[in-house]
Amino acid sequence: MVNIIKEQKGNSITVRMVGSVEESVEFEQLIGPVTGELVVNCKEIPRINSVGVKGWIKYFQVLQQKGVKLKFVECSTAIVEQINLISNFVCGGTVESIYVPFSCMGCKGEFIGLFKTDDLRKLKFQVPELKCSKCGGKAVFDDIPEEYFGFLER
Ligand SMILES: [Zn+2]
Prior knowledge:
By secondary structure, the protein is of the alpha/beta class. The protein contains five helices and nine strands. The model has no long low-confidence stretch (mean pLDDT 95).
């Protein structure tokens, strides 16, 4: 089940999607009419499967054709994976910020950090180390840069 939390500001609608996208979700019905701009917060989408992806692309393609400006923010690692796998996953939209996986060198704990895609480009994908929230140790990026940030070079 996906819950949509919607906020409208003038010509811009921001939706927060909460839950796994694992069935055909009635995005159109849940989100309602969109003109202008749609900002999609993907922070709370832990999973998306092939059925979910199909419906996702179908929905956003229609908006793209209508000239709606699409922005994807706070993309979860599951969403970043799809953006990398499927070239038209964001249907012409922009990816503004993504979560990046980290693992701690000390306690082996895993966590995620939020980065703006513009900043990642400036850093040339050299993700800075973070301080582990559990033990205060050094935490480093825990994926393959060429794969995880591949979509940013398209
Ligand atoms: Zn730690």
